[in-house]
Specification:
Three copies of one chain form a homotrimer. Chain A has about 400 residues and is of the alpha/beta class. Helices cover about 50% and strands about 10% of the residues of chain A. In chain A, the strands form two sheets. The first copy, chain A, has a five-stranded parallel sheet with strand order 7-6-5-8-9.
Chain lengths: ~400, ~400, ~400
């Protein structure tokens, strides 16, 4: 990269109406305006280019970034840690086993107690319908209140690291990958993307990735197509978001019944497993009842149900039906690869292998997307701030 | 805040006789002189004001701060992490499960092995009488020796994050809250503070908070009153400290038999549960014998014993008997709130709710108190050093 | 120290042929040339002297250092954290329980996913023959590939924090201790070092320490003598390395049958326990079969086997047979000390006690050795870089 590209990014950022991002959380992409979404891409790319040019991106001399992972995580954990470190924040994990956080009044208290010198709170809570997003809003309300009451000297902002409804750091990384792959956000117009279910024998996966993808990609004038077996529907309110977005962006959103219809002539395919909707609902009920045996049994039934749809696999044959036989294959990783990580899974090994590098590049945007979300919530004039940093030109590695 | 306030703090600090704090630990408040106690408050407030004015407080370019938590902790863990991060130190937790630290020779060795580039060791060890403070002294002696033998290039200093005897980071935060609430340390003179037991159904809590409170508040000329049910007495040597302190400060220390007598006309009330003294003693014995079943059984008997005193609750009715019906309610948090976190607990919900914000503000002093303890142990002329930092005026957030 | 010593180190470093260290891993000492080994010592000592002179050693404004510990660790964990912190990197532990890393394709993926903004990966994997080193090479190949494919913007370099074959950060710290103790690397020529087995009742320890010691010390023209009971042999390929090294360095390598022969007239003794070779082999097989019961049973048999050789103890009597009765006693720590940490162990308490301080000093080199390995892999002209840092003269503590 060169510095002219960085200044183009900064110039573009300076034209966006993003006042509302300042001291605000990033929970759902559809809460954000077109300008705000674009600002995240520009900032992420500016930060990435700066790092490539060995420019330090540190803006905090001190400050904590708290992470709360209510589900196992490697990728997101490291992306969050990288993003915070890039900006100068130290991550501190709130390990609930070691500290017992709870909902209600106690949650409000804990949110304040961990936030006295905290700039950012990143939360992952994705396994139960109706839980994760609600929890994040409660935490956000608690620290907002603490800030206004004079308890907290700064307003920690929340970044959704995956909830039951959306997975914005994933879908935004996916979108940035598409933008760079196709050569610009405007080039996405008219492209067909197939978000489809795929068979997995491993576990009942959350709905937030497909939901995040249809809700975000529908903003760019794309032809968004969803396909899944009966009973694997997504949250109706998110489908409505996709519907409404596609109308506004002159794109389209539709649901089709099979993988073949979805893949036909697609520019991009995103075949990925998730759990049946009723399983997600029952899982939440069992969790609330503390029924661990029930949860185990449910998981078993979930995988048995999946088994009916073992032919929902992204094969070479299916790939040949896509635009020019060469649609871009995407996955949020890790994928269940047939004959590699399992006997039969989401994707044939040769397809996965052909797209391995692009997928890794796709994943590599996440630290910068997270850093951009943080950056935009922390500076009133982020474009000026970036310009200042470029001018200062402190090296990242001396 | 404004910079004149910061310079007042620094000026006041420069008049204190605090030579003995340099390279010294902070284990018990009563090991510290009046000047040393006052120096912590001034430094904490200076650092807090600097951060408010967006001045960087980083004094270490590198260096570790090791934390050892031998009991679950959220608040103290985050306060310690925040304080260390503010000054530029990276925290590294010594997880005893992952590393097996032990007493005796092995402890001496481990203390050195974790300290080669370590500036600070923070320890929490509060559940067993006769254990925590002894352990901290052993660690302190080990690193002192290592420093003199040339093993360690610097003398790591210890901060007591709660032991069996004292909880200085808590009591000092409490006192700073009182100082700011009443408008100065001299305004505390003659104020009545009621440190009383209160009913809790949750677990047998350590004695260090009430002990820390009576031992510290008795230094400011306050009327310190302790009340608890029979059998819930504190360590006799700490009561002697309170007695002696109050004589020297022209205050008073007394024990009364009930909450009502303690609350009567009090300016400040601090109702909080702790375990019966004999339970604490037995717990220690059972621990030493490794009798986990016995510990569980003891906990059950402890809570049954508490149950006799279920009417020891901080009610609105009791609050009305305090000075003007409006004593300042304090708690180290988390509190057992009747009808909220338990059926019957330490405090009525409406009382707690009315004082929620002041309590959170009280808790918010802790990171600065810890940072001040670190700062004063690390610089021979802390006032000059603070003045230098103010003059340098690096921003915390660029 | 004084600055002339630092510049001597830098001058010496600038004469070494170390081009091949740039962007390269540190896995085995015998993969490194004499110049490369010497460069690590010079750099470690330069960094240590700089820190002593209160010069900041930070070269990274941001960047992660990932640690993967597949075995319990305190010393190495803290040494690694200290080294990374000294240079400005933030450590992030990859906890396999929380994230499930595996071999094969998945390992390749994980290696990339944790490395987007990662400078260093430190791995400890020492309990199974044929596993640790292989694993490290796989990780190294994965990130090398990721770097060349444009997935990773920088090449994270690997530091072996102990594998099944070598323990380079330990042996290099040991060697630096000897160099400083005897007054120069050339003074080691002709010195006799006895690496011997010793009795331990605690657990079946890995072979990497004795292997690392014989393979490294044989490079300095020393008389390296190995002694162990029958059945406790080391990996034959490492003995061959020692053999070949000693021929090249005009030293000698030999195996003798007992402690007394090894200790006779020795300048340095390194008595330390390890598990029988067949136990190590069987352990690996049982691990691969996931036979936890078998592993427990094997451990029992291992300790029973050790018990036959309970007289392999470093006693005062044996020490008297060494050169002048005053050989330097070494241990990688923690030692099994007779009458202290166990009834009968590797060393008599009075011997250990007499050498406690030197041993702690020996351990204290490890953070600098690790920092040097990192430094040399990250800068093309490390001598110039060090000179720059000395000239800049930022203080470590303001």
């Amino acid at each position: 990269m060169d510095s002219s590209k960085i200044s183009d990014r900064i110039k573009s950022l300076s034209t966006k109406n993003i006042d509302n991002m300042y001291l605000n959380d990033f929970l759902l992409t559809w809460d954000k305006s077109e300008d705000e979404i674009a600002a995240v891409f520009q900032t992420a790319e500016a930060l990435r280019a700066m790092r490539t040019d060995n420019l330090a991106c540190r803006v905090f001399d001190s400050g904590l970034a708290v992470s709360i992972f209510r589900d196992k995580s490697t990728r997101t954990r490291f992306s969050f840690a990288s993003a915070c470190n890039l900006l100068g924040l130290a991550t501190q994990d709130l390990d609930e086993e070691k500290s017992q956080i709870a909902h209600g009044e106690t949650m409000r208290e804990t949110a304040n107690m961990i936030s006295f010198l905290t700039e950012i709170i990143g939360i992952r809570d994705d396994m139960y319908l109706g839980v994760g997003h609600t929890y994040m809003k409660e935490v956000a309300r608690s620290v907002e209140q603490g800030y206004h009451e004079g308890v907290l000297p700064q307003r920690p902002t929340l970044v959704n690291l995956q909830c039951d409804i959306d997975h914005p750091t994933q879908s935004m990384s996916d979108a940035l990958h598409l933008i760079n792959h196709f050569g610009g956000i405007e080039k996405l117009k008219g492209k067909k993307i197939a978000m489809t279910w795929a068979y997995s024998p491993s576990y009942g996966k959350p709905l937030s990735v497909p939901q995040g993808v249809i809700a975000l990609m529908s903003r760019f004038g794309m032809e968004v197509v969803l396909a899944h077996p009966e009973g694997y529907n997504l949250l109706p309110e998110v489908e409505e978001v996709a519907q409404s977005n596609s109308r506004q962006s002159d794109g389209s959103y539709s649901r089709v019944t099979g993988m073949s219809e979805a893949f036909e002539n697609a520019d991009i395919v995103y075949p990925k497993s998730w759990a049946p909707y009723t399983v997600m609902e029952e899982r939440t009920r069992l969790l609330q009842e503390g029924d661990l045996e029930g949860l185990k049994d449910l998981e078993k039934r979930c995988l048995e149900n999946n088994r009916q749809f073992i032919d929902w696999e992204c094969t070479e044959k299916l790939m040949q039906t896509t635009k020019g036989g060469s649609a871009l294959y995407m996955h949020c990783l890790p994928a269940d690869i047939s004959g590699v990580s399992c006997e039969r899974g989401e994707v044939e090994a040769s397809v996965f292998e052909r797209y391995r590098v692009p997928q890794y590049i796709q994943a590599g945007y996440k630290p910068y997307i997270i850093a951009a979300m943080i950056f935009l919530s922390k500076f009133k004039n982020p474009a000026d701030k970036l310009a200042e940093m470029v001018k200062r030109a402190d090296p990242r590695v001396v």
